[in-house]
Amino acid sequence: MQPATFESLVDSQTPDLWQIETRGPGPQGALPLTDELLRNAPSGDLFGLTQNAGMGWPVAEVLRPQYLILSTQGGIRGEDGRPIALGYHTGHYEVGLLMRAAAEEIDRLEGLPFAGYVSDPCDGRTQGTTGMMDSLPYRNDAAIVLRRLIRSLPVREGVVGVATCDKGLPAMMMALASMHDLPCVIVPGGVTLPPISGEDTGKVQSIGARYAKGEISLEHAAEAGCRACGSAGGGCQFLGTAATSQVVAEALGMSLPHAALAPSGQPIWLDIAVRSARAVVTQRLTGLSMNKILTADSLHNAMVVHAACGGSTNLLLHIPAIAFAAGLERPQVEEWNRINLATPRLVDCLPNGPVGHPTVRFFLAGGVPELMLHLRALGLLRLNALTATGKPLGDVLEWWEKSERRERVRQVLRERDGVDPDDVVMPPAQAKARGLTSTVCFPRGNIAPEGSVVKATSIDKSTLDANGVYHKIGRVRFFATEREAIRAVKGQSQPAVQAGDILILAGRGPLGCGMEETYQITSSLRYLPFGKEVTLITDARFSGVSTGACIGHVGPEALAGGPIGKLRDHDLIEVRIDTRNLTGSINFIGEGDATFTAEHGARILAGRTPHPKLAPDPELPADTRLWAALQQLGGGTWGGCVYDVDAIVNALANAPRMGSAPYSLSGEGSSSVNPAAGTSIPESGADLLATTHGRSSC
Q1: Which residues are catalytic?
Q2: What is the pLDDT of residues 62-74, one digit of tens each?
Q3: What CA–CA distance (Å, rounded) separates 88 from 221?
Q4: I want to staple 424 with a disulfide (CB 3.0 to 4.6 A). Which of 365, 419, 609, 667 is the partner?
């Protein structure tokens, strides 16, 4: 490709270039205005009718009830399916088709459809890059913009939210959850198919590490990387954050039954959008709204389903945020632990075993309703929770159990893939016999006094003792950046990470880098032969693919003074995780040749200074620094990384300020306050927290 000439940049020779019109006739006819409208309607409502007609909608129909369809669409897809411009990921590439199907149904039902777009990034694409520093903060940004778009269509009667992936779908759920009095339905964007021959999108993200360690050839890496996506649209084929978010949306009752994880681009996928549009119109006619669907009971059901499917630990950030948006009490660690202890894992889906089926098989095995049948039999669900259908969950499950839909999709799985549906969504006795363990454990200790998270179900079974306990004592390999850590995992820096190491990755929480997702490390450890013998402990987060013991969300984070940031190379660490009883501990127990109790270790750590390499990432964007400070005031990672407006306003009101004139601050749901005069503005999240210690809303 050659640089363009100056002439081609400043002018063109297109033949019809100068056929320029300076006036147009405008739509024919007249708006269906009334005396009442002209006298009492806001001017914005009237101008909106003009805009509707100007875009070409039939003038006689512009007073129809308005419904907004929001999506995370990305890319430009041609009518023939070929890309005109690529999206960030397959998950949002085809969702415009869902929007169109929903819009056509709203039109058929004599509603007036509107569409808006807030695209989303790809966590897979940003792994190991500075783009990951914007990932989790983007969720909050997108939720804000989505809410603003909803409010900016003042006479909307309901909202259909179409989304699929790691940040777009949680953001959409947060936005719709906050529309308490509005009819809303989520349309999950579905999943991409696995390749006929090749690796899934979870495993393929480790080709760099496996090649660097000599596990695969260059040719294998190139071919596997090319063909991992078996279809152009849909979220990943494994039960990571994207797929788990779809499951949770349905479990909350925000989606229609059997909507999560449908194969993108296929008729059964499009049909979900049609019926969802029908549902939001029906909700309006029957008076059903979000605050009647999102309740403490539906939140409980979502947490139970999350545990039963072995979903991504990232939902421990997103479910509390959705609850907060809905005005519900956010679940605490104790509630997560109680539910995970009581709920068996029943789903065999990538990246978990024993087989590891792709997500489309979870859908064909019956998906969320099939899983809920087993959970109902165990007495773990609250069946009175309303769903997007307007019916309580108990009625939905009665329908599903006897439905033709259930029989037909399960038969497809048998015939097409030769898989018994009960081997994907298992009856409890079968799951127990095959060694499936509960999902999430929350280890504490002198490294994580506020707690941490480990996906116990992902720990390689060969590393457990006869009682299902993972017990490791090893020496620390300390890293303050993901870049250094992955180089050592790949063997590109010395000493290389090896079996038995306790890999500490600190300073990667919100204040350090926006709480990056360390998937490239966890996936590499999973697919390298020695990886199951390496323990990872970090204040960052990760999605579903892990092995060994990958422990994240360590609190407090290192840059908030957490003891994880005071560890040093060669410190001795003891990790104990009981995968059956879901208890665990992570403790510093020795330095040099000396060993001591966890209590003595806590005293040593308290007297240590932070690791000399510990610092906020030099490339940390200012936007992310601001997000980190604000979410800390909303309860931090254990509170869902939300913006608690009351807490933020209160903090600003009481912080020292430049100048001397008093002023007031107010926000939605907050009363005016008058801060004392001051002389400076806090420079960082830590400074802001220091001025508001004890005032956070958790």
Answers
A1: 543
A2: 999 999 999 999 9
A3: 21
A4: 365
